[in-house]
Write a structure and sequence with these properties.
Elements (H helix, E strand, L loop, with lengths): L1 E3 L7 E10 L2 E12 L4 E11 L10 H7 L3 H7 L3 H12 L5 E5 L2 H10 L6 E2 L2 E2 L1 E4 H9 L7 H7 L10 H31 L1
Parallel strand pairs: 2-5, 5-8
Antiparallel strand pairs: 1-4, 2-3, 3-4, 6-7
Length: 196
């Protein structure tokens, strides 16, 4: 799949979403895009897994209703948190020039860090970030209709059902592409106005 991300400087883009149960990571999904032309990126690889809860913890009722992730799903399909950290490290191994994108990036990064995975930096490598929520607010100049479902619909992608990290990653991808286009158009308009 090829997708247009206008004016992105980095060679690689990680777009991700995660689901949590009271701060504990229970699902992570990410798509890694690699630049193949000026503004054209291609999927390099993807990841999607569930994480078992530790210490006899259980998925709370609201989270189960919100995500569709139950204790049974985690018991049957989940991996241990230590294994999840290894999987995420392996997924990003060797990637240096990276832009990290999510809808609510700062909170996602903090919560992931609390779960043992750092998406701020890796050794000497600092990962730049783009929050689709904050940038939609800025670029669209509004305080309402900033939920991922609303923005995805504006980008032509309709979400239905539970909050699934992989579906939300696809929605964030569409929103990010649209926001890159808006930002590029606004910069061009500003340049034209400066010339006039």
């Amino acid at each position: 799949m090829l997708i247009l991300f206008k004016n992105v400087k980095e060679e690689n883009i990680l777009i991700f979403d995660a689901e949590y149960n009271e701060g504990d990571l229970i699902q992570f999904a990410g798509i890694l895009f690699k630049r193949i032309n000026k503004d054209v990126f291609q999927i390099s690889k993807s990841i999607n897994f569930f994480v078992k809860l530790e210490d006899e913890k259980k998925v709370n009722y609201f989270i189960e209703r919100f995500t569709g992730i139950s204790n049974q799903v985690l018991d049957e399909f989940g991996i241990d948190l230590d294994q999840a950290i290894i999987e995420l490290d392996f997924f990003l191994d060797g990637i240096t020039d990276l832009l990290v994108v999510s809808h609510g990036l700062y909170n996602d990064r903090i919560t992931l860090e609390n779960n043992g995975f750092n998406l701020f930096e890796k050794g000497d490598i600092v990962y730049k970030g783009f929050c689709t929520y904050n940038n939609a607010k800025r670029l669209l100049n509004r305080d309402k209709k900033l939920k991922l479902e609303d923005l995805a619909e504006e980008a032509g992608l309709f979400l239905s059902g539970y909050h699934d990290a992989f579906k939300d990653t696809m929605a964030t991808t569409a929103v990010f592409s649209l926001l890159c286009k808006f930002e590029s158009e606004q910069k061009e308009e500003k340049k034209k106005n400066e010339i006039l």
